[in-house]
Amino acid sequence: MRFILPVAIFTVLVGFFWIGLSKDPSEVPSPFIGKPAPTFSLSELKNPELTVSNLDLKGKPTLFNVWATWCVGCRQEHEMLMQLAAMDVVPIYGLNYRDDREDAKRWLKGLGDPYVAVGYDPDGAAGLDWGVYGAPETFLVDPAGVVVYKHLGPMTMSVWREQFMPRIQSMSGSGS
Amino acid sequence: MNRAVAALVIGLILSGAAHSIDSEGPLPTPELQARFEQLTNELRCLVCQNQTVADSNADLARDLRDRTREMLLSGATDKQIVAFMTERYGDFVLYRPPVSPKTWLLWAAPALLLIIGSFTAFLVIRRRSLTTDLPEEGEDPFPTTDTNHHA
To answer: Within chain A, which residues score under 50 in pLDDT?
Structure first.
């Protein structure tokens, strides 16, 4: 009888820690989910005379991938992005965040270019509007231009299968 | 040894000069500067989460400081700046999150813990005073002054 209270407290604490410690503290819920993609208009990385804007992210499901040559996780996920581009399920748009144009072009030349178009954002202004705080970040935008999902960290096959594919399928299923 | 001490002293003197981590000087009026400091000390740097935007050296923190500075200079109110930041980074960017269904437990926790604690203390103290007042069964109701004998 006298053990009930300590055991109850212990169980509750274990529960709290179980949930609390299994979360990744660097993953901050994005306030953009369910909201229209932030407006931006940037010069395209490889063709500076062209612009990339939030209007490009409308009319079809798109991926919006934030990357930079200084970002280790971006190097990790690059192979995966190349595979996704080859699968041709959704067009991948890029945001080259706080980077150097020449470095970024060399990166795409050496490793391959999975992007339909890349916005060049050297001072991170568009990144700030997207709430970017740790590249790589990948947003899923629906045909209406609404942000549906955000993945922080390198894209992997399991993340793609478990988080992105079902959402993309439900978009095309709803007839949009 | 003396040299090391001298180097330390000089280093400490010079560190006073490294007051601000940004190259830009203070804002034009003391009032704006005070608001700048107030705001950047309330905002969390999302890269190094236990530092404020004012403290952190991270690029992101610098961006947020620059943006705060620009907005202050263009006449934005504190409220507008905080709204701008939370629109992009969520409530997480605030060191003092607003009271909402998600955070009421956080805000109420100190008061709740105080109530639970005082209630427990009350129970324990009362039980103790009851047990010391009444000698338990088998206990000598008239203990001798030599307490060691009983212990």
So the answer is: 175-176
A50-54, B16-20, B46-50, B90-94: segment of lowest average pLDDT: B16-20
Using left for φ > 0, alpha for ψ between -120 and 50, and beta otherwise, residue A168 falls in: alpha
Window 95-154 of A, Cβ < 8 Å to B: 98, 123-124, 127-131, 133-134
**Domain that includes residue B71, residue range:** 24-93
The complex scores an ipTM of: 0.73
Q: Are the beta carbons of A37 and A66 closer than 8 angstroms? A: no
Instruction: Count how many domains chain B has.
Output: 2
Domains with residue ranges and CATH for chain A:
34-173 (3.40.30.10)
Q: Is residue B149 part of a domain?
A: no
Entry pTM? 0.72
Average pLDDT for residues B76-88, to the nearest whole number? Answer: 88
Residues of A in contact with B82 (CB under 8 A): none
Q: Do B42 and B79 reside in the same domain of the chain?
A: yes
Alpha-helix residue ranges (DSSP H) falling in B1-151: 2-15, 30-42, 59-73, 78-89, 104-133, 147-150
B40 shares a domain with B59: yes
Of the candidates A157, A148, A169, which has an alpha carbon nearest to the alpha carbon of residue A57?
A148
More confident residue, A174 or B115: B115
Which residues in chain A have their CB less than 8 angstroms from residue B92's CB? Answer: 28-29
**pLDDT, tens digit, 9 for 90 and up, residues B53-69:** 888 888 888 888 888 88
- Pair B53, B89: CB distance under 8 Å: no
Q: Determine the pLDDT at residue A111.
A: 92
B92 and A28 in contact by Cβ < 8 A? yes
The CATH number that applies at residue B68 is 1.10.8.640
Whether B44 is covered by a domain: the verdict is: yes
